[in-house]
Amino acid sequence: MFDTEFLDLPPLVEAGGTVRLPGSKSISNRVLLLAALAEGETLVQDLLDSDDTRVMLAALAQLGCRVELPASTGNTDGATRITGLGGALKDIRQAELFLGNAGTAMRPLTAALSLLGGEFELRGVPRMHERPIGDLVDALVQLGCEIDYLGNPGYPPLRIHPVAQEDLHLDAPIRVRGDVSSQFLTALLLALPLAAREQTITIEVVGELISKPYVEITLNLLARFGIAIERDGWSRFTIPAGSRYRSPGSIHVEADASSASYFIALGAIAPAMTGTDGIRIEGVGGDSIQGDIRFVEAARAMGAQIVSGPNWLQIRRGAWPLTAIDLDANHIPDAAMTLGVMALYADGPSTLRNIASWRVKETDRIDAMAAELRKLGAEVETGPDFIRIQPLAAGTWRAASIHTYDDHRVAMCFSLAAFNPDARPVRILDPKCVAKTFPDYFETLFAVCKPATVPVISIDGPTASGKGTLAAEVARQLGYHYLDSGALYRVTGLAARRAGLEPNESNETEIARIALHLPLEFIRGQVLLDGEDVGDDIRTEAAGMDASRVSALPAVRAALVDLQKRFRRLPGLVADGRDMGTVIFPDAPLKVFLTASAAHRAERRYKQLISKGISVTLDSLRLDLEARDARDMNRSTAPLKPAEDAKLLDNSEQSVVQSVDQVLQWWHQAQPFKSS
Ligand SMILES: O=C(O)C1=C[C@@H](OP(=O)(O)O)[C@@H](O)[C@H](O)C1
Ligand SMILES: C=C(OP(=O)(O)O)C(=O)O
To answer: Which residues form the Enolpyruvate transferase domain (predicted)?
Structure first.
């Protein structure tokens, strides 16, 4: 996950390949609650691991359910094991639960806990305290439950008081409004079987039910847990007497169909990458129980070519530009946001109707989409329950900094704007908001996208100038990959040793082959070789000797050039060394040549060594550095010198923070983002 302040997407041009998507949020949280209410164990396969499911799991654990995550079960199949309460609280009758911004946790738990007879406090993030729950509370109070609002009436936080089952009024139908969120009805359907052991319970929906397919998911999963609800259209639901949650033993979670919408749109917008047949999605397909699978119909109407099978979808670009759409999107409220960005690539204005619920989700999504689409240059019209978007012609796109309102879907759908024909970069602010349902969204996207070019910042300079510290920090703040080219020979020497190869000419070809495929990463100050931190191993005297021996082998040097170039991956690279800007990445859009006086560098090195208990003198270090500088600058092959277009940075009198800020400032000057 990118937990940077922002993530810059360079212009993207093609896409292709296979993605496996994480589990459905709506299925995961329903299954977790049902498993918690049932008796015995339920094994949940492919459960979503994200903020929304984590708050649900934490709440269930607090309520006394046994929750065993894949890591702790040791299950090779990666399942999560839930041991349920069997329909009644056990030892724990009181808890304060934090439910983040998960509507699928807050609403169903409110209903279930109101019927279980304990004292509970339910809270969330500030936005959750602005998302309505009054219609659900009204329905529960009608039934005899006791619930207080701890903040604004109609909104969380809530306090739930215990009531005895025999005091509940179950004879009359329970009326609930269905026109603000379908989750209120879902919550009642999931929880009321707790009270239906001896008596049939009827729920009546008041007002037109929205987001109906989500109620279908609820009914489907209740059936899997042994509860067969009868329904009369969308207005009357009956839970038969004698209902009892029965674990299916093991249950599989499909991949998330709303998350699939971004990749379906990607296949519709991006020309297929050479050698691929567009985008293939695995984990969810035509037979999905999730309503958002009907996004496929909308994408087809806009021109996408989509074929599907059980558990897979294959998407290719068809009509281009896309065909404008006028759609009642009430049945796919979440995925419809993706259509909002696809509309920019259409042949006329697109209208999404009947989406008033957008206003009470993670943010006011109608206003948020309009504001951010306008930043890209689009003309947008909105009303209480619709949005109309004019497409953007080539030559009219603007580079924009997209505010994401802590709304995962805003972040995800706007990433698709990076395919604009004007090659404008797109900045996504607070990219970690995708953690609500899809923590690795951007990594998954990058794995199937081809950029026009991957941005590189090269930082070259003499020894002890602090380039490693500077480069690693710049990379961290930008979310870019980091290449410490100075470590490559040492790692190659170590890898050769570990493969049982003496670093000499007779093993040159074999060592070059190893060097070319080194599974190497530089993350958070660590040098990871195949996931293992080898930082200490490569800094020994013996490793230094091996490094200098492998560096004398021409085939190894050539392989390492290729390896270095392969670090240039989305979303970007910061590379430090001696010839990054001059030889390896001569087209880097920002080149920095970092220096500091020999006196300052000697002093830094001195402090470093003394703190490690190594005794040296300042004078000898300084003389040594000066001699190395002279050698480096005057050698005939790849002498250490700034690239002609490099910016010179002398950090003698600067703190690390100051030099990082300077480099970022240069970088931002090169980026034409409109401020947010
Ligand atoms: O029940 C569910 O799993 C959901 C129902 C929908 O909400 P509304 O019914 O409030 O539209 C949807 O937007 C949400 O992401 C998940
Ligand atoms: C509306 C959403 O979430 P929630 O389940 O919190 O309602 C969503 O995921 O788009």
So the answer is: 17-445
